[in-house]
Amino acid sequence: MSSALDVLAVGNAIVDVVSTADEAFLNRYNLAKGTMTLVDERTADFLYAAMGPGREVSGGSAANTAAGVASFGGRAGFVGKVRDDDLGRIFRHDIRAAGVTFDTPAASDGPSTARCLIFVTPDAQRTMQTYLGACVRLSPADVDRAAIESAEILYLEGYLFDPPQAQQAFREASEIAQMSGRKVALTLSDPFCVARHRSAFLDLVERYVDVLFANEAEITSLYETADFDAALQHVRRHCPTAALTRSEKGSVVVSGEEVHVIDAAPANVVDTTGAGDLYAAGFLYGFTQGKGLATCARLGSLAAAEVIGHFGARPERRLAELARGVP
Fold first, then answer.
1. pTM for this one?
2. How many CB atoms lie within 10 A of CB 273?
3. What does the DSSP 8-state code read for residue 51?
4. In CATH terms, is domain 5-12+60-104+136-322 a member of 3.40.1190.20?
5. Which of 112, 115, 184, 245 sees the fewest Cβ atoms within 10 Å?
6. Where are the domains of the chain?
7. For position 223, what pLDDT does the model report?
8. 327: pLDDT confidence band, cut at 50, 70 and 90?
9. pLDDT digits (tens, 9 = 90+) for 239-254
10. Residue 141 CB-density burial (10 A; 0-12 exposed, 13-18 middle, 19+ buried)
11. What SS3 string covers 194-258?
12. Dmax of the chain from CA atoms?
């Protein structure tokens, strides 16, 4: 079956504000280093006032992945909710400028467009404080059946799993993809997110997911084990393909009896924001182009290395050019 899109990503439509910070700043405001924490609008305003000079860039995990797929030369679409405000217009402009199809109508009332305050410490770790705003309004009504049926892969962002109506949208979208003979991919996003929704994630993985993305902390949290190899054995029984990232150790891709251990691509680490998002972009691009799993993982590592070499979670160089010659 032919497809109009390679990847249709569903997730939080967020504008990131990226700033440097030291350990003392994180301790002063009791911020859990290296994780994403949901905050209300009042807290977001308070931390924004306290942070140093920031750089505003459109973000959101699944949106970053869609932008990465487009940078490789793939056909990507995105579904996510913004408000008809300044940040919403910035987000819409930026994602379309990146070559991604984005047609979700903006909300005319309710919470403002989401923003994520990202504090980058000298070791390049990012600590995120996220106000979801309009994102929580994403509902089954925003599920575009025609778009899902036209995409080779439906890609779902775990961060979006907090609002109950978003969970329902995930399930309905997954059912549409499954009935249409399309693949479903999921990123677990964050170990705290997994802990909040473990049973729901396990159900989603076992019933719908064809390709699962997770880092070491997320996959061990999902299966409630401290041992990575034990978690790997669990996931290979529950999901056709899993791509598990391990930071500087690279990644492990498992599909039934097939296992690939892939080195991380060389990188000058400046900011780890978006590393997992761009790994997924490279992997999914390769997957939709019929590449072998090892090549998919190498493309993912290449994209992750590019994005961690600068501030911001979207590529600054054309990934299609960097990918030439990848075996």
1. 0.90
2. 28
3. S
4. yes
5. 112
6. 5-12+60-104+136-322
7. 97
8. confident
9. 999 999 999 999 999 9
10. exposed
11. HHHCHHHHHHHHHHCCCEEEEEHHHHHHHCCCCCHHHHHHHHHHHCCEEEEECHHHCEEEEECCE
12. 55
Q: Which residue is associated with the tokens 């992945």?
A: 65
- Name residue, tokens 């009791």: 30
Spell out the residues 6+ positions from residue 90 whose beta carbon is closer than 8 angstroms to its own.
15, 56, 58
Residue 237 class from Cβ within 10 Å (0-12 exposed, 13-18 middle, 19+ buried)?
A: exposed
Buried/exposed 66-95: b ≥16 CB within 10 Å, e otherwise:
bbbbbbbebbbbbbbbbbebebbebbbebb
Provide the pLDDT for residue 124: 86
Residue 107 amino acid letter: A
Confidence of residue 1 (pLDDT cuts 50, 70, 90): low
Contacts of residues 252-258 at CB distance under 8 Å and 24 or more positions apart, as own/partner, are 253/293, 253/294, 253/296, 253/297, 255/293, 258/293
